Every structure is written in C-alpha cells, then in structure tokens.
Amino acid sequence: MFSVDLTGKVTLVTGAGRGIGQAIAQGLARSGARVAVNDIDATSAAAVAASLGDTARAYPADVADPDAVVQMIAQIHDEMGGPDMVVNNAGIEYKTPILETPVSEWQRTLDVNLSASFYTSQAAGLIMRDAGGGVIVNIASIAGHNIPLPNRASYVASKAGLIGFTKECAREFAAFNIRVNAICPGVIETEMTTASRSNPAQIEKWLADIPQGRLGKPEDVVGLVLYLCSDGALYLTGQAINVDGGKVML
Question: Which of these, 5, 9, 100, 112, could form a disulfide with 84 (CB 3.0-4.6 Å)?
Fold first, then answer.
C-alpha cells in the first residue's frame, strides 16, 4: 500500500466519518500524520478518530456553516497545532430533475460541496500563510468536467465550481507557499453509490466506459492524496486530477 512520511503533520479531513473521507484519514494516519477527523455526524467522527489512535481527534461540525468552520479551525489550532494540511472531502448528492429541484436542495448542495471548501481554505489558509506554507486538497468529481450525470444538476454545478475554485485558490495562495489541488474521482464503491451499484444494468453501463474495467475503491483515491500532501508534489498546484480508471481522458 502506498505511503509517504507525513510524521507530525496536522491534517484536517472533512466528511471523514465514512467512505472516501474515512479511507483518506486512515491513509494519512498510517503515514504518520496527526488527523483531525471532521464529520457532521459526531458519533461517526468519534469512532473514526478512536480507530486511528491517540494522535487523532474528532471535530464534529457542519462545514456548510461558516461560523462553525472558523471555530473548528481555531480549536484544531489550539489543541493540535496547524493545520498543516486540509482535505476538503465532505460532499452530498441529490438525484432530482432540474424542474423538480427545491431551492433548498440546490442551496444545500452548493453549501456543502463548494462553499465549505472556501470556508476551510480561508480559515486554514490564514494559519498556513503565517506558518510559511501548507497543502489543501479538494475532492471534486469527474462530474465537474462536463461528464453527463442526469438529474444531478446541483451536484455537477458544485463540483465544476470546486474545480474552478481550486485553480483560483492555487493562484492566490502560491505566494504563501500553499499548494492547492483537486482530485476528481469517477465511480467509487462507497455508501453514496450503493443504490446505483445494486442495478446490474447500471454497473454494465459504467464498466463499458472505463478502460480499466472496474469501479474505483476509496483506497484508489488515498494514494494520490498522500502524494499531493508530500514533498514529492512540491511543484504541483492548481491541478484537477482524474482518478477514474481512464474514463475521462482530457
């Protein structure tokens, strides 16, 4: 399993109570990082933090709430130091046609999938700037690259926006030695895709468009997160990298 040396680095992972976020938190802990585990579900956050050992702590909060994010970052800074790195992973997805999408559903998706990354990047960025540098990794999606995803307009818009934000954040933060990149997963075997993966016809359709012939696993995303957080990626910023088995070749 891929690993790098991130010993002592304090890393916040949002939405780390399950799925990709949990796998990322585990990979960072194996690499020596001290992990601040965030999730809106306090029980899940506590369970993951406990599984990672004494160097991890749980920070339950709704990252769509800007005040809660500022308080969380300040608490992490006081209790753990840093953060030296932030992985913005929290995300939600609704499946609703545009003409039937409630405004509340549209806004909630943008709040969690896009605005939350702005809130954490701003609050943590101030600390990283004063510390002389840092790393931010945003978990976007291939849906942000104009990949058709019927009945998910709010999700697609939020992920396209996150890719755009990543690039502009990288441009501004470069002066502070803060690297900012995005990872764009394809179909990953997580709770979010459970319902769709129960349909054999859907599986067949997905696999027909993936050259590697399989769906992704959370661990497929982890290795790239670790690399982007490491000194091996010192000259890499403002990128949106697909992790999709070859589905999208731009």
Answer: 9
